[in-house]
Amino acid sequence: MRGKYVIAGIGHTAFGKLGLDTVTLNTLACQAALQDAGVEKGAVDALFVKGPTSSKELLYGQKVSEALGIQPRWGGAWDQGGAANITLIDMAMMAIETGQCEVALVTFADNPRSGSRAAYARPRGNDAVYGWLSTAAGYGMIHQAHVAEYGTPPEAFAAFALAARSHGARNPHAQLRKAISLDDYLASPWVVEPLRRDDCCLVSDGAAAVVVMSARRAQALGVRQPAPILGIGGGQTSYDVHLRDVLTSTQAVQSGRMAFEMAGIRPQDIDVAQIYDCFTVTALMTLEDYGFCPKGGALDFVRDGQIEHGGRLPVNTAGGLLSETGMPGMQLILEGVRQVRGTANLQVPKVRHSLVSNQGGTMHTHSTLILGG
Amino acid sequence: MAETFTVEIDDINGPYWAGLRKGVLQYQACDCGYRWLPPRKLCPSCLGTGWRWETASGEGTIRSWVVYHTAYHPDFKDRLPYNVAIVRLAEGPQLIANIAAPHEALRVGAGVRLQPDMSRAQPIALFALHPWY
Questions:
Q1: Which of A186, A159, A145 is nearest to A312 (CA)?
Q2: Could A243 and B66 be called an inter-chain contact, meaning their C-beta atoms sit closer than 8 Å?
Q3: A243 burial class (0-12, 13-18, 19+ CB within 10 angstroms)?
Q4: Which residues contact A275 (CB under 8 A, 6 or more apart)?
């Protein structure tokens, strides 16, 4: 499968507070992705939608198809939290491989900033009587466990936040364009201790989409800048965070192994990485579990600007969830593609291997994408 | 604290919450050897129904914990800051609970003992830190 499929086009809306419904946002992102690929909407025969986090609607994928004025043979919405973006690219590849379709759109939109943020504050079942509410608190448990097991200092979490915010500050499309210092990070208030405000991603409206097809099809259609998919993988734990045996490992282990094996490369071959950073602990554990550094060794890997533009492994070069947009993951795929094309705002020189991680739930799900230059 | 959040009691979890009203914490134990919470109709290991309720010793350890400085619902505003912990019972099952202790005394791995909060209409699983921690 290595290199047999490509991301042929990418598109996104503005990020921030937009006041638009999610179907319109999806439509705008799909239109932009098709334009970027140079493909007419009539060529699309599959539409894979990651449903909005803030609202659940029946037959949502079909509503987006209707708005796009297309009747894809394959279509629907998929719920796997933030891992779904890459998973849907994987499913598109499988559907094309088996002859079910030829040109697939993968899209996501949400509007929690102008609409409802209730999904992020949600009561967690009957345990809400203990005050167990919100998405952040589950990640707080993992952050605390990582600190207890490995002695991970605030400077390690801060280094990731500083890199993302520094890169986002230079991205004209970013929602939050304000770099921070270590002192700023340390002074930022607790949300759910041990999580500081600057450990937490943004809440954003916006949409992003990609077009997936075979490399052969892209050549036949004259796609200008196809980004070859060299490796892709996924993994999931089913158990909720408070029922897990291990809190300090993620499905990045499994997901990364699959993607690296397919690509036939090792972590040290990666030139630039977009690491899912809903919270800083997620990003540090993903770097560890992919094998960029030993377990508990994140500090030595991220300190002293090593993950900033110009460093050993630049991460989240458009700002990630902490700075570009809180969108759960599709924006990372777009930046991974730009780095391969050589069109990124903070371009890394001579990118041969560009990695993207997605994950969802409270580290329930993970997916990994490796693109080739 | 107002009790907007109340537990939804059903056929499956009824005995669990009834146990807490009597001051005991129960978990499910299957003939296959698996023990678990929260309550389920079928054993998640063997998928059978050969399980029974067993009473926990009340001894456990803190797997992790957080302190809320944000009220995600107005009901919890007056309680800020408050803690929530993941507790592993000596028998194996894990659950969400509150720890009756100063937050600076909380540690991952600390031993805790059940001390149900009987002041509520439906008591919940509150734990106290072992004195030696």
A1: A159
A2: no
A3: middle
A4: A283, A286, A287, A315, A316, A320, A332, A357
d(CA B20, CA A370): 50
Q: Per this entry, what is the length of chain B?
A: 133
- Say what percent of chain B tops pLDDT 90: 87
Q: In the 3-class helix/strand/coil scheme, how is chain B assigned residue by residue?
A: CCCCCCCCCCCCCHHHHHHHHCCCCEEEEECCCCEECCCCCCCCCCCCCCEEEEECCCEEEEEEEEEECCCCCHHHHHHCCEEEEEEEECCCCEEEEEEECCHHHCCCCCEEEECCECCCCCCECEEEECCCC
- Is pLDDT of B15 > 60? yes
Q: Alpha carbon of A38 to those of A155, A207, A209, A227: distances in Å?
A: 45, 19, 14, 14
**Residue A165: count of CB within 10 angstroms of its CB:** 24
Kindly state the tokens that stand for B9. Answer: 């009691």
**Is the Cβ pair B66, A191 closer than 8 Å?**
no
Nearest CB among A129, A190, A194 relative to B124 is that of: A129
**And the tokens for A74?**
């394959």
Check CB contact under 8 Å for B96 and A144. no
Give residue limits of the domains in chain B.
Answer: 14-129
Q: What is the dihedral of CA B32, B27, A127, B92, to 10 degrees?
A: -70
Residues B33-68: tens digit of each pLDDT: 999 999 999 999 999 999 999 999 999 999 999 999
H-assigned helices in A172-242? 182-187, 215-221
ipTM of the prediction? 0.96
Reply yes or no on whether the pLDDT at B87 is more than 70. yes
Please state, in angstroms and as integers, the Cα–Cα distance from residue A302 to each residue in A162, A269, A308, A321, B132, following that order. Answer: 10, 17, 9, 18, 38
Q: Is A229 within 8 Å of A363 (Cβ atoms)?
A: no
pTM score above 0.95: yes
Amino acid code (one letter) for A72:
P
CATH topology of domain B14-129: OB fold (Dihydrolipoamide Acetyltransferase, E2P) (2.40.50)
Element housing A67 (H / E): helix A60-68
* Contact in structure between A97 and A46 (CB atoms under 8 Å): no
Cβ-Cβ contacts under 8 Å, A192 against chain B:
66-70
B95 to A193: CB separation less than 8 angstroms, yes or no? no
For range A99-117, the mean pLDDT: 97
CA distance B50 to chain A (A): 21
Average pLDDT of the segment spanning A305-334: 98
